[in-house]
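Can't paste images in this forum, so I'm doing it all in text. The chain is below; anyone willing to post the predicted structure tokens underneath?
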Amino acid sequence: MTNSSNSDAGIQIAQRIQAISQTGLNYAVSPYDVERYSELSAIAAAMIAGSEPAEIDRARLVFAGERGYATPKVDVRAAVFHQGRLLLVREREDGGWTLPGGWAEVGQSAAQSVEREVREESGYLVKSVKLLACWDRNKYPHPAIPFHAYKLVFRCELVGGASSASSETTEVDFFAEDRIPALSLTRILPQQIHFVFGSLRDPAAPTVFD
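Text version of the structure:
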């Protein structure tokens, strides 16, 4: 039987193989090298996706869209409070709730990206005021994704706007710490939610990182 730590280790190995493949393809000159690095990418896709052929093909397509030197992706999330309650959005994809956020955009700073994500996903206008955490996603028990990612969590002040769902979200609401709904664990974990409430109680606490 495979335990969760072995499974997590396997995913991280697959992520590393894909990174080597992507970077190798960026610099490869000979057809031989291109063939071998492409083969590594196919192996990584099979390791990530499991035994279902359709899922392996899907993983291959995701990997094929990545170009250049491989680096971790950046996931930005916003901790926005109103009267002691935390802003969460309900994801259309899996029905779970999360801090508003998503992948940082090229051409925007991380702070600008998280402000945009909050506006797009919740309808609220916010201002980033503090970086609360920089977490290595692989060090936490999230469900696996194909890529290594860093998660940046910003404390944001509410400055305007109004609640509005989006193409990615179905509901928007503020929640007390003891009333947190079922979470989208791919995006946020209960211990991370409790961390941001702790930051509200201790605003002078330093930024944490892995």
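Strands lie at 73-82, 85-91, 97-98, 101-103, 124-136, 149-161, 169-175, 208-209. The mean pLDDT is 90.
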